[in-house]
Design goal:
It is a single chain. By secondary structure, the protein is mostly helical. 65% of the residues lie in helices and 2% in strands. The protein folds into two domains: 2-79 and 88-110, 434 Repressor (Amino-terminal Domain), CATH 1.10.260.40; 112-148. The protein contains seven helices and two strands; from the N terminus they run βαααβαααα. The termini are far apart.
Length: 162
């Protein structure tokens, strides 16, 4: 059930797995049952002790609704470079795919199909508002910093000659 640790593979994979489990609300026991391994094996993956074998990488990809190639990259396996429009960071790509799968699940299980578009537009409006708010906070911080800086360089101490 384990494979050798490709350089940096276990840490990246462990971080992704932890975040994905949290996003989807999986407990360690639930994920273990879903993938078909013992709880202790999931624990070893989460702690970065080992990475899953190819068989379990596929089961994890299916469980979380992400592309298998993304998990292959996370654990450091060689993959074809035909990524095209995909993000260059496999952790980011895996996280995006996990959120896409979660979004799809929410739409399908929580809302009638007629409300999907309104829900998406509400999410976009929320994202726009959060983004604008973050820009205002950053702009205000920069303005405050600029106001606290003197316009002219400080005077030289007496007796100082460059």
């Amino acid at each position: 059930m384990m494979s050798d640790d490709p350089p940096g593979g276990t840490r990246r994979f462990a971080g992704w797995l932890e975040a994905s489990m949290r996003t989807r609300g999986f407990t360690q026991a639930q994920l273990a049952r879903s993938v078909g391994v013992a709880d202790t094996q999931v624990s070893r993956w989460r702690r970065g002790q080992v990475v899953p074998t190819l068989q379990y990488l596929q089961r994890l990809a299916d469980t979380f609704g992400v592309e298998r190639i993304t998990l292959d990259e996370l654990v450091g396996l060689p993959v074809a470079q035909a990524r095209g429009e995909r993000a260059s960071d496999p952790e980011q790509e895996a996280e995006l795919q996990a959120y896409q799968a979660r979004f799809k699940e929410v739409l399908q299980t929580k809302l009638p199909r007629g409300m999907w578009r309104a829900y998406l537009e509400a999410c976009v409006a929320l994202a726009d508002g959060l983004s604008a708010s973050a820009r205002r906070v950053v702009r205000q911080s920069i303005d405050d910093l600029e106001r606290s800086q003197p316009d002219e360089p400080p005077e030289r101490p007496l007796g100082f000659h460059p």
